[in-house]
Amino acid sequence: MGKRFNTLNLGIGDKDLDTAVAECMKDLDNQEALVGELTQSVSDFTQGAILKGKVVRIAGDDVVVDIGYKSEGFIDKAEFDNLADIEQALVDGTEIGLEVYLDQIEDASGLVVLSKKKADRIRGWERVMETYQVNDVVKGRATRKIKGGLLVDIGVPVFLPASQIDIRRVGDPQDWVGKELECKIIKIDNDRRNIVLSRRKLLEDERDRMKKDLLSNIQKGEVRRGIVKNITDFGAFIDLGGIDGLLHITDMSWGRIQHPSEVLKVDQTVEVKVLDYDLDRERISLGLKQLTPNPWTQVAEKYPVGTRHKGEVVNIMPYGAFVKLEDGIEGLVHVSEMSWTRNIQHPSEVVSLQLPVEVVVLDVNQDKQEISLGMKQAEENPWTNVEEKYPAGTRIKGKVRNMTTYGAFVELEDGIDGLLHVSDMSWTKKITHPSAMLKKGDELEAVVLSVDKERKRVALGLKQLSEDPWETDIPSRFQPGQKVKGAVTKLTSFGAFVEIAEDLEGLLHISEMSDGKIEKPEEIVQPGQTLELKILNVDASERKIGLSLKAMSFDGIPIPAEQNVSVKVEIPESAKASVAAKEEAAQGEAAKDSE
Q1: What is the DSSP string of 139-180?
Q2: Is 264 within 8 Å of 228 (Cβ atoms)?
Q3: Which pTM was predicted?
Q4: Residues 12, 58: one domain?
Q5: 425-453, pLDDT tens digit by residue?
Q6: Residue 69 belongs to domain with CATH number
Q7: Considering its fold, how many domains does the chain have in total?
Q8: How far is CA 404 from CA 410, 419, 506, in A?
Q9: Is the Cβ–Cβ distance between 79 and 132 less than 8 Å?
Q10: What DSSP string runs through 229-272?
């Protein structure tokens, strides 16, 4: 019925009607497809979507992009690295297509805000995720330092922790910014769009491979190239590629070095010789000096005994000084070989570090690599002609240079001292210490008594400048039985010394102080007390004068010389006879002692 109605109203046949209906249905399908496309297009314009667009113009600080929306979108010019190229393309009428990120559909100004960088980042992340997996090796440039490490650009910025930058601890990660780095991916987080890299892991894997290769091929005596990785007080560690070898300080130079830093510095490339290795403990001993000839092989020919050489003091020890003759060759000057005349207690009294010295070779031990040197042998021995210059009996003038308990050393000339013993200072006075007559720095005249060139000794005498009074004056001036006065100079356990003339003392023995028993001399006499005494004996050969106080007694009572009381006493004849008998007995004993 509808057909008929249409036919009647339109005035067309059945065949034409079928064609018209078919075209009408086709239009309806097209309209439905168009509506579907429009619906899909509208759904794409949601915040966070990535859209295709084309640049239409530049307006102020923005690049205007047509994204097929009712309004054009705007992108900040700062997001474009090739802005000049875009401007030229607009002038030329070239279409510029790009993908953009829909940041805001309408901002506060009613504009569509787009971002090229965000779109690039998302697409880049998708490409990275499609390309790489964990343990893959990637290359990228460190772009900037962030908390805990670095950002590395491998198409997208990824994180490289500071602890994973190198095998050894790094200082400031900022030092790595701008460098191309090869790293291994150790973590991928798809949900958080996060990748973590490790350069350390890559280096460790490579180091393990190199270590296995090195340990399987290493040989003693071979020369290898390495890099100084660390320096200590005892040596340096050399990275041979996969494993570190130890270069000990003693194997760095044939010469003396105080610290490895004098020879090497960190990161320096050096060639070293393999001295020994332990595969089980993975230890390698290296040598640097072994790359050059050992200077000790020719030392006997270059430095024969008796030859003179110039050197430099390089080390001082309590027992001597080490002198460098050339690099790698040092000799020892013992403290006893430094001076002919001085008694040197420590080498620093004569030499100092870096002091140039002239030495003579005394001995060479090539096996032990030892050379004995002498400094004094490079100079004339002043003791060679001392006997001719100072024969016994010569009077000399000198200065007291030093004193000891037994005498004084008098300088005869530079390097030659004579000893003035306390026993040779006075004929008559008992000297217990030289300070009783001399002091340091005194100028004096003395007589040479003897010279011992082998023992380097010159004996001097002061008393020998005058005649010996014991041979001339004393025996004639002092006789047994003679009464004398004198002052007590010193007390001893066995008696007291009394000065009876200038510089002449006699001994008052404790047994001659009293008829009674005396335990100590101070019970009878005191230092400084003046006494009148009787001479018991005079012994010129022993240079002794014996004195008696009890011989001056009357009935056993000593009479001090300073007592000036006049007393008249009637002496019985029997007492006189007793005193006379005692005096006669005392004189007899004195005569017997003198014999």
Answers
A1: EEEEEEEETTEEEEESSSEEEEEGGGS-SSPPS-GGGGTT-E
A2: yes
A3: 0.45
A4: no
A5: 988 887 889 998 899 999 999 999 999 98
A6: 2.40.50.140
A7: 7
A8: 12, 10, 27
A9: no
A10: EEE-SSEEEEE-SSSEEEEEGGGT-SS--S-GGGT--TT-EEEE
